[in-house]
Amino acid sequence: MICADSMLQLTRSFWNANPCDGHADVDGRTRFRYQKEPWLPAILERVAEHRAVLEVGCGQGTDALYCCRRMRPGCSYTGVDYSEKSIENARCSLEQYPEPLQVRPDFRVGNAESLDFVDRSFDCVMSIGVLHHTPNTQEAIDELHRVLRPGGTAFIALYRSASPKVFTAHVIRAAARLVDFTARRDRCLYRWCGRWGSDHCLGTMLLECLGVPILKSYTRAQIGRMFGRFDSVRAYPIGMGLPLGIGCAVDTGRNPLGALWMVEAVK
Questions:
Q1: pLDDT per residue over 132-161, tens digit each?
Q2: Which region, left, alpha or beta, applies to residue 128 given φ > 0 means left and ψ of -120 to 50 means alpha?
Q3: Distance CA 131, CA 95 (A)
Q4: Contact 157/135 with Cβ under 8 angstroms?
Q5: What's the CA gap between 16 and 89, in Å, rounded?
Q6: Which residues of 158-182 are buried (b: 16+ CB within 10 A; e: fewer)?
Q7: Cα angle value 54/55/57 (rounded, 5°)
Q8: Which positions of the chain have pLDDT values less than 70?
Q9: What does the pLDDT look like over 86-102, one tens digit per residue?
Q10: Which of 138, 158, 177, 230 has the highest CB neighbour number within 10 Å of its CB?
Q11: What does the angle CA 166 – CA 57 – CA 59 come to, to the nearest 5 degrees?
Q12: pTM score of the predicted model
């Protein structure tokens, strides 16, 4: 069995090779992300109301830029990601972004399971579709609780076990393992799809499905237990993650077929 540290390194290597959502230019990434997740801007508007925000798993900084356009001057936004390449791209995006920012985000490399911040540093923490890819998700949630101030809010999105999309992803991953076994080669389908890159209508969606080392999902009962240290927890299904703008008409709010649990937890 591969140890947690090795899994973290494999995860870092994957995201260094495939920064989340793909697309080399800021405009392309932004358009792709919010066409695929049209429900997300409503969450980000609420995040932007806070004074000190931490985003864990900031990727290439797309959501950070959205929030920092809307935050009040004098506030702070810190984005952490375990992938050095993603942080490099996020910093570069500051120079490419065409609109003025009210707040300049601070992007830094960091581990969700061991955050380099003192207790009670932030009044809002956010992690959208990230912590189901880390070896010890519970440790990461406990870290978010630790750095959150009393009365602060966490917005966390995690894969939902009952979702058709997540079920399909697990089936595809099982089929990919069967292909590997038959061909006696490692990650055959992932390597084949990787030839096409991620500057297209699917971004990194298929590469994530086939190649990301860790992909976990959760039931409502599991969510309740994992966030047990918070004073109040609300979780609801959201997000089908459909590309090509398909989701814009059908995926703007809560969705019984949602691929994610949107968890809003108050400390």
A1: 999 999 999 999 999 999 999 999 999 999
A2: beta
A3: 28
A4: no
A5: 10
A6: bbbebbebbeebeeebeebeeeeee
A7: 145
A8: 1-2, 22-23, 180, 189-190, 192-205, 242-252
A9: 999 999 999 888 788 99
A10: 158
A11: 95
A12: 0.90
- pLDDT per residue as tens digits for the range 251-263: 667 888 899 999 9
- What's residue 124's pLDDT? 99
Q: Which of 88, 92, 102, 239 is nearest to 159 (CA)?
A: 239
Domains of the chain: 4-160+215-266 (3.40.50.150)
Per-residue model confidence (pLDDT) at position 264: 99
Identify whether the C-beta of residue 218 lies closer than 8 Å to the C-beta of residue 160.
yes
Cβ neighbours for 226, distance < 8 A, ≥ 6 positions apart: 137, 138, 141, 218
CB atoms within 10 A of CB 240: 21
Residue 239 vs residues 84, 153, 159: alpha-carbon distances, Å: 27, 20, 10
* DSSP H helical ranges for the chain: 4-17, 26-36, 40-47, 62-70, 84-96, 137-147, 164-183, 188-194, 205-211, 220-226
Tokens 């590309």, residue?
243
Q: How many CB atoms lie within 10 A of CB 14?
A: 19
Does residue 69 contact residue 102 with C-beta atoms inside 8 Å? Answer: yes
Alpha-carbon dihedral 255, 35, 205, 25, rounded to 10 degrees:
-150
- Contact between 125 and 56 under an 8 Å Cβ cutoff? The reply is yes
